[in-house]
From TrEMBL:
GO terms for molecular function: DNA-binding transcription factor activity; transcription cis-regulatory region binding. Coiled coil: none annotated. This is HTH-type transcriptional regulator TtuA. It comes from Rhizobium anhuiense. Belongs to the LysR transcriptional regulatory family. Residues 5-63 form the HTH lysR-type domain.
Length: 322
């Protein structure tokens, strides 16, 4: 018959091992020493291995089998503590899991900061995260696959959805520094970009079907996601708009060049929290919305971003002669 130790036996075993003696364990557990000894003897009988060396030593010493079992006992009892904490949280109304859909327009640094703090604040809550483009956020919330969404592209109002603006982002038209458009040296016109390949992300959700945003070239390459678009633009295979937060480092290093193109609408892109009216968020999801609102409120405006870029790219002043 397979051994079937109880949680109580494992707790007594762990206490004896950690306190160093049966008498110390009896005091820690508030039990008679004889009860502690009996519990350990029963556990050893079930496992059919000795856990402590008792002969010739004043204090019990773990056998090799005992050392191995100690790690298992700690893991099992640790899992039990996690389960107890989760049950306590559920009784208090805390979600077991938060499913969130986040737009690629949300600055990645803000997302990482929020999720890092979320892990610390809600260690018992599981996270299901989807990051995607355009109408994906709305689709996942509407289908119930996401508890909350953080993004934009609220193309059509829906009475079953609650949206709240919590921040902004913006797109910038860019090209690789070796791309023909980057070397023109003056503000660009529609005529300059019409015959150049423009990279465009296709909305897999279908929410913006039949609508193109800032598509100015006659030649377009359509890709499935913003990461692929980013890499192709950096490789010089076309030009296009990318989230400012995504390309900050590329602009600073000169890998990408901002295109001065008036025809490209560069207004701020609102970021919303999105949820179903019939499915209000629990404490953890509510905290996450508030945390994103706090982080996104510190994102620079478009004017501030351009000022920062200009300052970073300004040549250093020459050293004065002695």
């Amino acid at each position: 018959m397979l051994p079937n130790p109880t949680l109580d036996q494992l707790q007594v075993f762990l206490t004896v091992a950690e306190t160093g003696s049966f008498s110390a364990a009896s005091r820690a557990l508030n039990r008679a020493q004889s009860v502690v000894s009996y519990t350990i003897a029963n556990l050893e009988a079930q496992l059919e291995v000795p856990l402590f060396e008792r002969s010739g030593a004043r204090q019990p010493k773990l056998t090799e089998a005992g050392k191995a079992m100690l790690e298992d006992a700690r893991r099992i009892l640790g899992d039990l503590q996690v389960m107890r904490a989760r049950v306590k949280s559920l009784r208090e109304g805390l979600e077991a899991e938060v499913s969130v859909a986040i737009s690629v327009m949300v600055p990645s640094r803000a997302m990482v900061d929020v999720l890092r703090e979320f892990r610390e604040m809600f260690p018992t809550v599981s996270l299901n995260l989807n990051v995607g483009e355009l109408g994906m956020v709305m689709d996942l919330v509407l289908s119930g696959k996401a508890t909350i969404g953080i993004g934009g592209a609220v193309v059509k109002q829906d009475d079953s959805i609650v949206t709240e603006r919590i921040g902004h982002s913006f797109m910038l038209p860019v090209a690789a520094r070796n791309h023909p458009l980057a070397g023109i040296g003056r503000p660009l016109t529609l005529g300059d970009v019409r015959e150049e390949v423009q990279l465009v992300v296709t909305d897999a959700s279908g929410r913006t079907k039949g609508r193109d945003f800032n598509v100015l070239s006659y030649k377009t390459w359509r890709v499935s996601d913003i990461a692929t678009k980013h890499q192709l633009i950096k490789a010089g295979l076309g030009w296009g708009g990318l989230p400012a937060s995504l390309i900050h480092d590329d602009l600073v290093s000169g890998t990408l060049v901002h295109l001065d193109l008036d025809a490209y609408e560069q207004g701020e892109y609102p970021i919303y929290s999105v949820r179903q009216l019939a499915n209000p968020p629990g404490p953890a999801a509510t905290w996450m919305i508030d945390a994103f609102r706090s982080r996104l409120s510190h994102c620079p405006s478009q004017a501030d971003f351009h000022a920062q870029m200009a300052e970073l790219q300004e040549p250093a002043a020459p050293l004065a002669a002695e």
